[in-house]
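Following up on my earlier message about 1-deoxynojirimycin. Here are the inputs again, as you asked, copied directly from the submission form:
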Amino acid sequence: MAKHDMHGNKSTVLTVLFAALILTANASAQDRQIEQKVDALLKQMTLEEKVGQLHQLSGRDLTGPANNKNTNILAEIRKGKIGSMLNVKGVAETREVQAAALQSRLKIPLLLSLDVIHGYKTIFPIPLAEAASWDLPAIEQSAHIAAKEAAASGIHWTFAPMVDISRDPRWGRVMEGAGEDTYLGSQIAKARVLGFQGRKLGGTDAIMATAKHFAAYGAAIAGRDYNAVDMSEHQLWETYLPPFKAAVDAGVATFMNSFNTLNGIPATGSSYLQRDILKGAWKYQGFVVSDWASIAEMVKHGYAADIPDAAQKAINAGSDMDMEGFAYSSSLVQLVKSGKVKTALLDDAVKRILYKKFELGLFDDPYRFSDAKREQEVLNDPSHRLIARDIARKSLVLLKNDKQTLPLNKAAKSIAVIGPLADAHRDLEGGWIVKSDAGQVASLLDGIRSHVTKDTEVIFASGCDVACTKTDGFSAALAAADKADTVLLVLGESWDMSGEAKSRTDLGLPGLQTQLFEALQAKGKPVTVVIMAGRPLVFNAVADQASAILYTWFAGSEGGNAIADVLFGDYSPSGKLPMTFPRNVGQIPISYEQYETGRPVQDVKNVVYKSAYIDAPNTPRYAFGHGLSYTDFSYSNLSLSTTSMQPGSTVTVSFDLRNTGKRDGEEVVQLYLRDPVASIVRPVKQLKGFQKIKLAAGEQKRVAFSIDQAMLSFYDSKLKWIAEPGKFIIMLGSASDDIRLSDELQLLDKPK
Ligand code: NOJ
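Thanks, got it. Here's what our run produced:
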């Protein structure tokens, strides 16, 4: 904001303040009106109808284990026994179930939900890929388009964003999140919630978001999905909870709890998580949906004796809606009648859900999201594909580029495009897609063909399929490489190797893919490798020998075009890793945010009695925050507005960033802090800020960060949030292992 805007004349400031006051007053008047409507409706409801509001059932497309209980759903809806459905989509289907709800005694509309994880019809890069863009406005826009499309197709509510931090790439669900870092994850959580919901619910281009999975699901032991979590309170508060809190602050409408136990208690039955933290300390007003049958699963965990016991524990603990668990629908009426569950608790859950139905405007018009004309228009809006291509380009990470192998020459005489994923369509979309059409996805081969000159010969050979169990196709691949000047090899996972229930113990390239690479590499021509995957993989031979590596994740509907844009230099890569890439699975869990030991490694050649491995270095293959560009950036002239910080004040850190190369480009500058001596040992560095900055070739800009006391604070041994006076180290760089500038700051214990 320009100076004169900030200090604008008094009357402008007053007008703005006055307008803000009116808006807030209107908002709370509206809230009160909704509360009155909810109360009035609740008074008319029977016990059975109240329980019905807490029962959520799936449509035909199952996203969890099937059960045989979903018979005659329409009849149940008409009886007021179902409050919400998932996995129903499209105007025709959503109208059908909503019409049944309107035949129930109180005509309470259904809430219709779906896993709109990274797009509805237009598929955006998988969430982990988008996180690699570090581009918050782009991420918000992607969620907004997804919401717009889903909302035009009858959906009111998405089960996204997944804000679970994870430092274990064996866990297949890392593809759905924002990676390993709490600060980056919190910023992205906020951007996604705002993208899905807009500034306020109620518009027909916004849907409710869900912060999931509450909590600590990403720390499942050994990366095995649904597994137990055993974690210190300190780590929970410091690392795993903040993205959830960020989602609450951004106004997220709902929460989903998680399948895992946390320190012995299933999250679904945890009063500590749901009542004490979420609805207590954080004063959360939205509602909590269970994960798929997670209430009933408390019996299998050994936490509940039977289904009624599970229902009792879950509702008492604050789980408001039962997804596909049939625990509430089968037991709650009796539990309330017998006094085991208080009516006030049931009412609280029902009110939270009804409130959202009013807020979405469903009582005014239950079909307002199911409009055939809008569905047609919105789902076919060509601008969505352009937006998808833009964020896809920003999500790709250039891991290696020896001797400027990339960008490729569009006018090359011939290009060999090899590999099991070179002509993949469906795989480019990644997991969790709902309404897309893989036939409309451009493969990378398509993208390449549309970029090269008409005289360029593109020679394609897959070599093998993704599983790559046979070498039959290798000779054709090698022959293609022989004929071409440029060799491009596209390797990786198939779309269904990551996501829910897709944990892996071996993170190598599948089957004989590495062998295919080595055979091509032996030809002596520079090989550029594109890797598509839903998680960080381990690919040491490729990392050591390939000339260039572009990590593209699953880049969505426009992935093929976007990757070609980067390969041919129409866009200079700007993505940075949101997760550490290990050298081998034995290093997992791994993160840049480590603690110093009493026996740190000072010399990699001498690790005797040091905190080290005897068979691999401690360092990762590629560090968090790493990502190259086609240009170079220099960092210089660091200055601090003061080196002695008064408590409660802020310090400005600034430096010059210069694009020293010959191409325009974007750099993600990263600010890390360390508290070197504290009452509990602090990590060697923690990300506390970043900016994605675009600079033309030769351009320079002064970049500034403001450091406040919250950024220096942490949870102490009593879980008190404090900043301890003393020295702090400020680090600025291009990656967590590429710090370019650093200085010290003293936090004073009292004002000077
Ligand atoms: C189970 C998954 O854990 C959750 O993320 C998803 O939203 C539900 N199934 C519904 O599909």
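One observation from looking it over: Residues 1-9 have pLDDT under 50 and may be disordered. Hope that helps, and feel free to reply on this thread.
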